[in-house]
Specification:
CATH superfamily of the largest domain: Aldolase class I
Distance between the termini: 56 Å
Structural class: alpha/beta
Number of strands: 20
Number of helices: 15
Length: 475
Amino acid sequence: MSKFKIKLIVPPSFKQLEGDNVQYAEYLDYYSLPVYGMGVLISFLRQKDYYVDVQDFTAQSERSAQESDLYLYDYTEFFTQILTTGRADQKIETIVDKIFNPADYKGFGVVGFSLHHFGHFLFAILLARKIRDMSNIPIVFGGAFITIWGRLYPEVFDFINYMIVGDGRQPFLKLLNYFENGAKAKATIPNLIYREGEKLIATEFIRYSFHDIPIPDFTDLDLNSCRESLGGELVLPYEPTRGCVYRCSFCIKNPMENGYQTKSYDRIIKELREMKEKYDCERFQFCDHNIACSYQYLDGLVDVFITEGLEIKWRPFMDIRKVDKKLLKKMSQAGCEVIFYGIESGSDRMLEMIHKGQSSKQAAKVLRWTKEAGIKTLVAFMVGYPHEAESDVIRTIKFIKRNRGYIDFAVVRYFGILDSNFMSKNPLEYGIRNLRRSLSRYMLEYDEVGGLSWEQKIIQRKKTMRRIMQVLWGK
């Protein structure tokens, strides 16, 4: 075993945050899932004979948030302060102090953070600053948030040494080799961002194969803290496919994607059985973008689940465009218990503007078929899309009322334009202009062409959110 010791950290996170365009109502708790990419990296490094110590602060931060009634996104005025100084207000600093122990970092050759969303990122900065105050140990940020938006925050290199974007396995391994013996210049390490003087350096970006990733290693995590809030069940993430063939206007093409890729049926069965036995877990959240990109592939996978007697419960994200009664019945037989559908709107005009490629009539039919098959539904709606009119809101409300009996759980999100999504690259095509960064930077404010200003849009979408929540849950 290598004498070079690695500490990997899942930073604090808080549930049910106001803001970041997410509002939950009667939801399944997907934020309780352990971070899939972190688990894969741990597995990969241990296969390479490295000592890896893992700290998952999620459970501690959740308890602290409950104690202090802290909602991070209510503290938008501190975003700039955190990014530039690594410090926040006393309430947040107290939470960080509770979980930070200098002794935890002694003897390690590198500290890595896996950052899944903006809340992770801000807390990681606060922890990194405290580590930097006590040691020169190299600090590396990686994960989905860094892959897509890390370049927007050059000042955080006051507290860290490197960012790794995309699949971090091989780049992190090469960086470890650089730390240990300087075998290669860091400029030759792919998928790396670092600072030299005042200049950010981004090395060559490589998309690695999806087909050789190991199953995630969650052995060091407190899996009891990962149990969902509704039923207390342990649910673990698994990725059977990667990529998406569709291009909804609000979406971002993830730099990690290398087309639409699928694992073989034999491999999926083998890996799910291994995870089921290793973690005593019978429920899995398929964390790919859309397992229904290929009807033929999904139909065959379901057949294998049935014939192999896998006996698991699973929950996929699916598009309604490639779903029918026959497939849904087989999915139910194969253990599918909940499907997450991105319905977005009950207005066909809005669906066409979003480039969703579906109609409200199709959506209603699939929701009904899903319930008839004995599968629960988690439906996502979006409010505040550019040029959403009163007539569109009314159509969505009518859609919900007509189909309320087929909706078990719902997610109602504020629409937001993300840096580098399709809309931000071609704003006039979508009837928007005057794009400018919000305090979070990765979210963009805008004005409608011939319509509402951003300030008016905020008021409109809040009103719409209240109306949608009222018709869904009477809140």
